[in-house]
């Protein structure tokens, strides 16, 4: 049995400092394809993704994202939007974003989720119509410094997961 997917989940960390190195086209395509292939409720696919690689546009995005000035240093960013009238748009787009981030990480490309919903100025900048809500900007790039693969501070599993009913500790190894 392969542990590649679990290993990506286990070791992925937020990356906010990127090397001045382009991400190859085939890796970018794989990242976007991961979003495209993500499951969605009733296969509605209520999302749209805008891939931004232009340096000036990345700087503009960074200026609009209060919590993400580091977008300016990324090799690319994906603006992820969900259809406003979709009951499941937010959760489906979130699933697709996580798929992109894990796929990128498996290729050695770091990322981080920036913002959360209601970024109309970002939507206007990249031409996303009013029927969509920008869910996130996700910058991608090779980490400038070696990432601390897997060094995560997490609450004990028994604290955040229960067996059968809330409060009955989930057994952990």
- Tally of individual helices: 6
Largest sheet: 4 strands, antiparallel
Low-confidence stretches: none
**Cα Rg:** 17 Å
Q: Tell me the total number of β-strands.
A: 4
Quaternary state, please?
A: single chain
CA-to-CA gap between the ends?
A: 19 Å
Strand content: 15-25%
What is the residue-averaged pLDDT?
92
Strand order of the largest sheet: 1-2-4-3
Global morphology: globular
Name the helicity range: 25-40%
Q: Which structural class do you get from the secondary structure elements?
A: alpha+beta
Q: Can you offer a commentary on this structure?
A:
The two termini are 19 Å apart. The mean pLDDT is 92. The protein is of the alpha+beta class and 173 residues long. Helix content is 35%, strand content 15%. Strands 1-2-4-3 form a 4-stranded antiparallel β-sheet. α1 (4-11) packs across α4 and α2 runs antiparallel to α4 (89-106). The chain is globular and about 50 Å long. The chain has helices at 4-11, 25-37, 55-64, 89-106, 120-126, 157-160; strands at residues 47-52, 76-83, 110-111, 132-141. The chain contains 6 helices and 4 strands.
């Amino acid at each position: 049995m392969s542990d590649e997917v679990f290993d990506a989940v286990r070791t992925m960390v937020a990356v906010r400092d990127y090397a001045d190195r382009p991400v190859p086209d085939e890796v970018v395509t794989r990242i976007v394809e991961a979003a495209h292939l993500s499951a969605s409720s009733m296969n509605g696919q209520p999302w749209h993704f805008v891939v931004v690689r232009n340096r000036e546009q990345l700087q503009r995005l960074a200026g609009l994202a209060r919590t993400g000035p580091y977008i300016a240093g990324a090799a690319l960013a994906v603006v992820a939007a969900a259809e406003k009238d979709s009951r499941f748009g937010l959760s489906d787009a979130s699933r697709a974003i996580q798929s992109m981030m894990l796929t990128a990480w498996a290729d050695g490309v770091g990322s981080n989720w920036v913002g959360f919903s209601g970024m109309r100025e970002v939507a206007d900048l990249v031409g996303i119509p009013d029927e969509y809500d920008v869910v996130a900007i996700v910058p991608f790039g090779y980490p400038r410094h070696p990432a601390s693969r897997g060094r995560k501070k997490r609450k004990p599993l028994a604290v955040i997961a229960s067996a059968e009913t809330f409060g009955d500790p989930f057994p952990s190894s």
